[in-house]
Amino acid sequence: MKVTLRTDVLTNNNRAAEFNRDLFQTTKTLVINLMSSPGAGKTTLLEETVRVLSGKYRIAVIEGDLATEKDADRIRAMGAKAVQINTHGGCHLDARMVAAALGEFDFEEIDILFIENVGNLVCPSGYDLGQNHKVAVLSVPEGNDKIPKYPQMFMRTELVLLNKIDLLPYLDFSVEEARQDLMEINPESTLIPVSARTREGLHEWFFWIEGAYAKCVQQ
Questions:
Q1: What CATH number should be reported for the domain holding residue 64?
Q2: What is the pLDDT of residues 46-57, one digit of tens each?
Q3: What is the pTM of this model?
Q4: DSSP letter string, the chain
């Protein structure tokens, strides 16, 4: 038996993504979809980002997790507005989930919205949330095989933050190999080595955000 799918299974998601995008564009809000495997350090990275940039930008965060509000509480402790989305088993956020959370924000009071997606290197990359940019976080302890093993994630992101570089002296990880793998999969992407723990390299991440925000408000 042959079944032909005539309707895009992502149609409803894409409609919601367009709704989100229209809102973000109208309010000149820079939206960054942050994706990674579990434990790569997305939340710690966001804590440092809020700490450093909150004096210049009004920052808000949507946190995606299967359960609990632990990550959202960490962001709130930094003084930023955070809304938690629990997927209850879902491996990613979709645009409809994000759209349902947007009513919790006053977009006249937000310059940058970060969406911390559910920890997963497969599903999140395939869903448009209406964001301006997709950014992947890869961590040194994960090893050098992740970029070639999960190409769809890295093909769809324009920036990769290589986190936990403070562990490079203790682990068998090659930054240059990671750069080469990324270049072969997505030559338009950029890799920035950082450590959210020691703050090494974060100035480049902040500079990238500043450039992205400048382009956003000019559109």
A1: 3.40.50.300
A2: 999 999 999 999
A3: 0.95
A4: ------S-TTHHHHHHHHHHHHHHHHTT-EEEEEEESTTSSHHHHHHHHHHHHTTTS-EEEEEEESS-SHHHHHHHHTT-EEEEEE-TT-SS--HHHHHHHGGGS-GGG-SEEEEE--S-SSGGGG---S-SEEEEEEEGGG-TTHHHHSHHHHHS-SEEEEE-GGGGGGS---HHHHHHHHHHH-TT-EEEE--TTT-TTHHHHHHHHHHHHHHHHH-
